[in-house]
Design goal:
Number of domains: 1
CATH superfamily: Flavin-binding protein dodecin
Order of helices and strands: EHEE
Shape: elongated
Distance between the termini: 9 Å
Strand order of the largest sheet: 1-3-2
Organism: Thalassococcus arenae
Strand content: over 45%
Helix content: 10-25%
Radius of gyration: 14 Å
CATH class: Alpha Beta
InterPro entries: Dodecin
CATH architecture: 2-Layer Sandwich
Protein name: Dodecin family protein
C-alpha cells in the first residue's frame, strides 16, 4: 500500500506561468523525496504601472512517503 502526502507551495517567475511552475517543482524536488506530481491550484500576476512584472502559481505537490 502506498501513502502519499500533498504540500502546498507558491512559486513565481518574471517570465511566465510555465516558468513559475517549473521553478516550484524544481525547488520542491530539492527538499522532498519521491515527488510524483503537482497541480496548479491558482494563478495570479503582479502588476506595476500597468504591466505584468511577475507570474505566481499556487502548487499542490504530491510525494510518496517511504514505507
Amino acid at each position: 500500500m502506498t501513502v502519499a502526502r500533498v504540500t502546498e507551495i507558491i512559486a513565481s517567475s518574471a517570465t511566465s506561468f510555465e516558468d513559475a511552475v517549473a521553478t516550484g517543482v524544481d525547488r520542491a524536488c530539492q527538499t522532498l523525496k519521491n515527488v510524483q506530481g503537482a497541480w496548479v491550484q491558482d494563478q495570479k500576476v503582479l502588476v506595476e504601472n500597468g504591466k505584468v512584472v511577475e507570474y505566481r502559481v499556487n502548487l499542490k505537490v504530491t510525494f510518496v512517503l517511504a514505507d
